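Dataset card, provenance and construction

Sequences and ligand SMILES were collected as paired inputs. For each pair, a complete structure of the chain with the small molecule in place was predicted and serialized as structure tokens. The example below shows a pair involving adenosine-5'-triphosphate. Curators did not alter the output after generation; any descriptive sentences attached to a record were derived from the structure itself.
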Amino acid sequence: MSNIQSTPLIVSDVSKSFVMHLRGSVNIPVVSRVNFVLNAGECSVLGGPSGVGKSSILKMIYGNYKTDQGQIVVAHRGKMLDLVTADPRTILAVRREAIGYVSQFLRARPRVPALDVAAEALVEQGEDVAVSRQKAGTMLARLNLPEKLWQLPPATFSGGEQQRVNIARGFLSEHPILLLDEPTASLDADNRAIVIDLIREKKSEGVALLGIFHDGDVRDAIADKIVDVSRFAKSADSQREKDGAKLYHSDVA
Ligand SMILES: Nc1ncnc2c1ncn2[C@@H]1O[C@H](COP(=O)(O)OP(=O)(O)OP(=O)(O)O)[C@@H](O)[C@H]1O
């Protein structure tokens, strides 16, 4: 396996502050000089106390948050590409082909049925619509979403039902990198176990995963490495909590 395939994402010296424009442009530093890599076939977990910057790192990698400094280098179309300096069109191509993202909350769109929401990312990757819908149905059934809901838009679904549509969507599409922002937060134990299986299947297919999991059992079941974000934290609260974060180790392989 070439380096590009075995290490599809490199986060190098990444820093981020928020500027609060409505509060006299006060600058709030969050993380500084974040360094880690993702390896194919492994699940890395961002660890550290609340507010330390875990979601911000995930959002910088997905291009939702601007990165102030450093490089986020991703394998894309046979080359390594820096997402920090990439133009918006390239970022959209990377999202379609290289980096998948299961967010905590589903962004439901009016009138689009759950089955199509789940199938959509696969269709965008070039899969036939009928085949994508059929795979979406299989995945929604596996996640115990009642069939009577499949043709309804998920806007009125419960939190756990919406999360399962989101999970189906994210796990169906075939990205070499998959970001997971608390995908099990609203799920019961049975569905959590299914998501653990899905993550293990992605690992065995060689996907590089990066996730945030507050549930310790899920984390223990799937984590190959823990990236302790408190090492990079800049906020005053995080600094105070740093010493209390002994729970997190840099490696749990
Ligand atoms: N859009 C934003 N604007 C301003 N500040 C933000 C924004 N997003 C995050 N922050 C701040 O950045 C810091 C890190 O937040 P982040 O959500 O990344 O932490 P986290 O480790 O994921 O926390 P949690 O475990 O509670 O979800 C927090 O102090 C938060 O208030």
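Derived descriptions for this record:
The chain has one domain: 9-235.
The first strand starts at residue 9 and ends at 20.
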